Prior knowledge:
- By secondary structure, the chain is mainly β.
- The protein has one domain (22-141): Porin.
- 13% of the residues lie in helices and 61% in strands.
- It is built from 1 helix and 8 strands; from the N terminus they run αββββββββ.
- The protein has one helix spanning 2-20, and strands at 22-37, 43-55, 60-70, 73-82, 87-95, 101-109, 119-128, 133-141.
- An 8-stranded antiparallel beta barrel has the order 1-2-3-4-5-6-7-8.
- The longest helix is centred in the first third of the chain and has 19 residues, at 2-20.
- It is elongated.
- The two termini are 32 Å apart.
Amino acid sequence: xxxxxxxxxVLLISSTIAQADYTTKNVYKFENSDMIxxxxxxxxxxxxxxxIAEDSNGNKSVLKCLVNIxxxxxxxxxxxxxxxxxxEYTAISRDMSKGPQGTFTxxxxxxxxxxxxxxxxxxxxxxxxxxxxxxxxATCKE
Length: 142
């Protein structure tokens, strides 16, 4: 009986953990970008971006990001507000020389995003710097 109860307990916990994982998709537009050359000939870019996101938990949000690209490394921070008014803060990073994969990590938030950690692995599915738009998908683990 004890073994049976332990098995049920483990299954309940693992199903709760599995429900915490989710996917998200983001569409974004670049704004206010500027570029200079570095001493080694590489480009340094600073840009802001705005967009919308929707996750598999049903949350929809509007976001704004500030990013820096230097020596092929993208880094930055984003702030998003969802349909409930809850705010999520994230840090993003990507080694652009290794392809379209990167990560973003929740650094804080309000409401449902408060006191919870999440790391997402994203893939830039489509981007056009001339038009100034992009689309990414991500798998997230809480």
